[in-house]
Amino acid sequence: MSLWSPDAWLEAWRFAADAHHGQRVPGSEHPYIVHVAAVAMEVAHAISVRAQLGDPVARPDLAIQCALLHDVVEDTSITASELAVQFGDDVAAGVSALSKDPSVGDKPAQMRDSLARIRLQGPEIWMVKLGDRITNLQAPPSHWEPAKIRSYRDEAQKIHAQLGGACSVLGPRLQAKISAYEQFT
Ligand code: NI
User: Which residues form the HD/PDEase domain (predicted)?
Assistant: First the structure.
């Protein structure tokens, strides 16, 4: 039994690598695709563990493709319509929900708006947001002020509160990352 389609993974992976070409992970020398790979790994890990526990993710390919593509609309010139043509409407809708809408207002308002739109999607999309924040809760960049670090932690708690119930692996894993992040606050 295969848990996901390697071809679906590769198609989204190559698309994301092209879309993010030339971008770097903020505060690092890594190409941006390193972040994308980490989020996909979190989602794939959760899919694998849940399959072993008899709690399978209903649409693993949707979760993985949205993980691989989760930042292309927010951070590149790719549009949701282009995603719909190549990957279908469900991937396009998932990535759209995962993308902040710059017309909404300030950053906290954009996050609230995105979380509300993610909650209208299936649990596979919630999983991507959990994996994204798990990936981003590493040691903060050295130039971050304590207030910014605390607000990032608070935002992670909101994500956990709103989306953590979608996944028995990623919900607790995000909580553990939030607890570990306290050392930086
Ligand atoms: Ni991301």
Answer: 28-146
- Predicted confidence at residue 141, as pLDDT, reads 86
Cβ atoms of 91 and 65 within 8 Å: the answer is yes
**Model confidence at 60: pLDDT above 90:** yes
Q: How confident is the model at residue 2 (pLDDT cuts 50, 70, 90)?
A: confident
CA distances from 36 to 104, 147, 161 (A): 25, 27, 23
CA gap 99, 75 in Å, rounded: 9
CA of 52 to the centre of ligand 1 (A): 27
User: 6-184 has which fold?
Assistant: Hypothetical protein af1432 (1.10.3210)
| In the chain, domain spans | 6-184
Whether the pTM exceeds 0.90: the reply is yes
